[in-house]
Design brief:
This protein is mainly α and about 100 residues long. The chain has one domain. The protein has helices at about 5-55, 65-100. Helix 1 runs antiparallel to helix 2 (about 65-100). The model has no long low-confidence stretch (mean pLDDT about 85).
């Protein structure tokens, strides 16, 4: 049985959203994990600068005494912002690619 070019194109278009959904879930999970850790580290660095300017006492063996407060806020911000940025960029690329393929 032969498949005409019109039928072949319809099958590949139907599979595209499934591939994008799986890709978006994978990218979202990975960037959430990376954003969590990187956001926490950047927030602790910012906290060290803030505490240094305020003249807060230093704790031995720790970057700052209340590092956990800065790390928690930074982790939440990173875990939310990085996936949003990456997924919005991917969606923009998908829209451009769809518009080009439609003609």
């Amino acid at each position: 049985m032969t498949v005409s070019p019109g039928e072949e194109g319809a099958g590949s278009d139907a599979a595209a959203p499934e591939d994008r959904t799986a890709r978006n879930i994978g990218v979202g999970c990975f960037t959430t994990f990376i954003g969590l850790w990187s956001g926490a580290m950047v927030a602790v660095l910012i906290g060290k600068i803030v505490e240094g300017v305020r003249g807060a006492p230093a704790c031995e063996g720790m970057p700052i005494c209340n590092w956990y407060a800065y790390a928690a806020v930074g982790a939440v911000v990173g875990a939310v912002s990085l996936p949003l940025l990456v997924l919005s960029r991917l969606r923009r690329r998908d829209v451009r690619r769809d518009n080009i393929s439609r003609g």
